[in-house]
Design goal:
The chain contains 15 helices and twelve strands. By secondary structure, the chain is α/β, with parallel strands linked by helices. Bound molecules: 1,3-dihydroxyacetonephosphate and iron/sulfur cluster.
Length: about 300
């Protein structure tokens, strides 16, 4: 089907199913364009609490759809394709947390929302890149177990002065790992008037050279402070920013910074998911109940 027809069918099915489409800032442009709500992972989690619909089609990766389901157990949450997964979230296993807890029994477990429901069930609180510093600094402990992103752990340790134990030690995002100091130097040379906005999933040496270190939602909020930026995160963020602020210049730091999981979702998948009500996310209640506490604590604290 052509895009125009697909969009018309999606609109018709949305009405029939009383559905809403929520999408992350890294989605393909044509998916961003049909979303009812677009945001970073914190904004999407917040929005999921108050969705006025029976069905949520989640155009993002699996842990985001799981979070929406945990916060809305009575609603149907659909992930348009099972291939939409986060490689970093998949690096963290419950055993990593249990092993760290043996070594640091008094340290709270802080998990990035980029993690499975099974691991969130072992967390005291979840965080996103938008609120990690704030939440860790509020915790009544100088040592925290933190997973799965070691680079966000570095950022949090630096900003809070606390001891942050990364679990697993090697947790990272392969998309953000691509950015190097050479990319920073090239950007400064090519765009001497631009400032650099850097996601905290980037490597420490890239963070050190940033003008601002922010979540994707933070990039949107800070963009009006300057008229030219080089963007160090997944490349579709430039589409999102340029659409919001047509008079500001945004350059991707690398064209090949692409998240395969995010890009797995097409308009056709969204159409098929509404047509066939697939793939419905299910989280066993004993896991959901514990994970919900950690997510709700985050929402209260941020
Ligand atoms: P944000 O919370 O900044 O949207 O980041 C989510 C993510 O997966 C970054 O790679
Ligand atoms: Fe996961 Fe990285 Fe993709 Fe974000 S960009 S969803 S952290 S793999």
């Amino acid at each position: 089907m052509e895009n125009e027809k697909l969009i018309a069918e999606i609109e018709r099915l949305k009405e029939e199913r009383n559905a809403i489409i929520m999408a992350h800032n890294y989605q393909l442009p044509e998916v961003q364009d049909i979303a009812d709500f677009l945001g970073d992972s914190l904004e999407l989690a917040r929005k999921a609490v108050n969705v006025d619909a029976d069905v949520i089609v989640f155009a993002g990766v699996d842990f985001m759809a799981e979070t929406a389901k945990i916060l809305n157990p009575e609603k149907t949450v659909l992930l348009p394709t099972r291939r939409a997964t986060c490689a970093m979230a998949n690096m963290l296993r419950p055993e990593h947390i249990l092993e760290a807890k043996k070594r640091y029994p008094d340290a709270p477990v802080v998990l990035y929302v980029n993690s499975s429901a099974e691991t969130k069930a072992l967390a005291d609180v979840t965080v996103t890149s938008a609120n990690a510093v704030k939440i860790v600094s509020k915790l009544d402990s100088d040592v925290v177990i933190f997973g799965p992103d070691k680079n966000l752990a570095y950022h949090v340790a630096k900003q809070t002065g606390k001891k942050v134990i990364p679990v697993p030690e090697y947790g990272h995002c392969y998309v953000h790992k691509k950015f190097t100091v050479e990319d920073v130097e090239r950007a400064r040379k090519l765009y001497p008037n631009a400032k650099l906005m850097v996601h905290p999933e980037c490597e420490p040496e890239v963070q050190e050279k940033a003008d601002i270190i922010v979540s994707t939602g933070g990039m949107i909020r800070h963009a009006p402070e300057h008229d030219e930026w080089v963007v160090f995160t997944e490349r579709e963020m430039v589409y999102r920013l340029s659409r919001l602020y047509p008079s500001i210049k945004f350059h991707p730091a690398r064209e090949d910074a692409t998240c395969i999981g995010m890009k797995a979702i097409t308009l056709n998948h969204i159409y098929e998911s509404l047509r066939d009500m697939k793939h419905a996310i299910e989280v066993p209640e004993e896991i959901a109940e514990k994970a919900r506490k950690a997510i709700e604590r985050m929402l209260e604290m941020s």
